[in-house]
Backbone:
């Protein structure tokens, strides 16, 4: 009959833990998106999802129907076309509303 020492148990548990960590990392691998990689293509060559992932080129719903078809993003955005000025106004209104709520909550808490 052989006895297992405490050191052997710890080494087996440590190995088991390392294997589980590697499996977890492989399962939850994060892919780097295009926005974190430097753009090496000319701006006119970027199309489709790559265009939408690049924050400096993405206009959101401000792309016209012709631009959407030409750039291969037709169907990837909501059907409404809203100018960038209106989008900026909407963001500013939401920010002011959120600031007003936070000030209200801070005063009465």
Residues:
């Amino acid at each position: 009959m052989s006895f297992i020492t405490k050191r052997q148990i710890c080494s087996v548990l440590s190995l088991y833990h390392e294997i589980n960590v590697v499996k977890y990392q492989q399962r939850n691998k994060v892919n780097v998106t295009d926005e974190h990689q430097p753009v090496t293509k000319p701006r006119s060559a970027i199309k489709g999802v790559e265009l939408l992932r690049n924050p400096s080129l993405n206009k959101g719903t401000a792309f016209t129907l012709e631009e959407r078809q030409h750039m291969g993003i037709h169907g990837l955005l909501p059907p409404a076309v809203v100018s960038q000025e209106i989008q900026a106004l909407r963001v500013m209104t939401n920010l002011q509303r959120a600031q007003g709520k936070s000030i209200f909550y801070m005063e009465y808490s």
User: Anything to note?
Assistant: The two ends are 69 Å apart (CA to CA).
